[in-house]
Design goal:
Elements lengths: L12 H4 L2 H4 L2 H27 L28 H4 L15 H4 L8 E6 L5 E4 H7 L3 E8 L4 E11 H8 L7 E6 L19 E5 H4 L5 E6 L2 E2 L9 E3 L12 E7 L6 H5 L23 E4 L5 E3 L7 H4 L14
Parallel strand pairs: 1-10, 4-11
Antiparallel strand pairs: 1-2, 3-4, 4-7, 5-6, 5-10, 7-8, 7-9, 11-12
The structure holds ligand MTE.
């Protein structure tokens, strides 16, 4: 593995890691060896990725789909090249440059398991699901907790359509999203620092809000692997880490799910994580954001500008619990 470079919102290892792991001599030695052999290993990894899964995406013919004009942008769309080459996908490494590594992930066959407190538990192949869902395009802003942002045309369907398919039981209050687990394809998942798989959650009220969207495409094409193919969440009023990529399991539950970042550092990453410039991250301001591409800084808006759709879900706008 290459040398770990700590990015903006990553914590010091010592702050995160259980003592047993942090003090692990073998891990230290592996890290030292990694520093020496990093270039060679990186080259191998890129080659493996290039040789990885090259199966054509059977959903290509579904896109582009009709844009829904209800969700208007207040800014220019981010250039496709910028949105698809600057990514957070820790399964494939901690850098923003995961394009090559992510190509190793096989995305067919791919099935979504719907389970927990539902009337219709099922495992459904992604291409069968796509045939049943009302596909549309939505231009959404996306605001990362690291204070960068983009505006992109997602293709996909409202999460509420999938909730309806599941028929949640009366007691279900939350929806838990679990991403794939594949240590062979995703080298980041062998890093014991992170409690894989990637997990995120929403309340059922959030999941059935009209804005909550499952993205299966972008820019009129199937999602590229680095952006979370073949199935990811897009909840644009929340910090980007809530929008889990590479999802394979959706569980309806009466227990509030704990996300991967929340599990790592609960004082910095909470369950709700709604965008709000008035509540700084403990280590940086959230007042403004850098637009991918132009690099321009613009003021951040509460709920990322989507308050008209979602503010009613949160009774107390002064309660920090809703905003980290
Ligand atoms: N989902 C998984 N499975 N793994 C991740 O590392 N990163 C999150 C989110 N979903 C992440 C994830 C973060 S921090 C952000 S900002 C967005 O994905 C980035 O999405 P993008 O790469 O499509 O811009």
């Amino acid at each position: 593995m290459w040398i770990r470079k700590r990015r903006g919102w990553e914590l010091k290892e010592s702050a995160l890691t259980p003592e047993s792991v942090f003090g692990n001599r073998r891990r230290f030695l592996a890290g030292a060896a990694g520093a020496i052999f990093a270039p060679a290993l990186l080259a191998c990894e890129k080659k493996a990725a290039a040789e990885g899964d090259a199966t054509p995406d059977p959903s290509t013919g579904l896109y582009p789909v009709q844009r829904n004009p209800r969700y208007a942008l207040d800014r220019d769309m981010t250039a496709e090249g910028d949105a698809t080459s600057y990514n957070n996908y820790y399964e494939f490494g901690t850098s923003k440059d995961v394009v090559a590594a992510a190509q190793a992930l096989p995305i067919r066959p791919w099935a979504i398991t719907i389970d927990g407190m539902v009337g219709k538990p099922q495992t459904i192949a992604i291409d069968d699901l796509l045939k049943q869902m009302p596909l549309e395009e939505r231009a959404y802003r996306h605001r990362c907790v690291e204070a960068w942002s983009m505006a992109v045309p997602w293709s996909g369907f409202p999460l509420s359509a999938l909730v309806a398919l599941a028929e949640p039981q009366a007691g279900a209050k939350f929806v838990r999203f679990e991403s794939f687990m594949n240590t062979q394809a995703a080298p980041g998942q062998t890093d014991p620092l992170y409690p894989w798989p990637y997990v995120e959650g929403l309340t059922l009220a959030e999941a059935t809000n009209e804005l909550a969207f499952i993205a299966t495409g972008i820019y009129g094409k199937p999602l590229p692997k680095q952006n979370g193919a073949p199935f990811r969440l897009a909840v644009p009023w929340k910090y980007g880490f809530k929008s889990a990529k590479g999802i394979q399991r959706i569980t309806f539950t009466d227990i509030e799910p704990t996300g991967l970042w929340q599990l790592l550092q609960s004082s910095e990453y909470g369950f709700y994580a709604n965008v709000n410039p008035a509540f700084p991250h403990p280590r940086w301001s959230q007042e403004s954001e850098r637009l991918l591409g132009s690099g321009e800084r613009v003021p951040t808006q509460i709920f990322n500008g989507y308050g008209e759709f979602v503010a009613g879900l949160y009774p107390d706008l002064n309660d920090r619990n809703y905003f980290y």
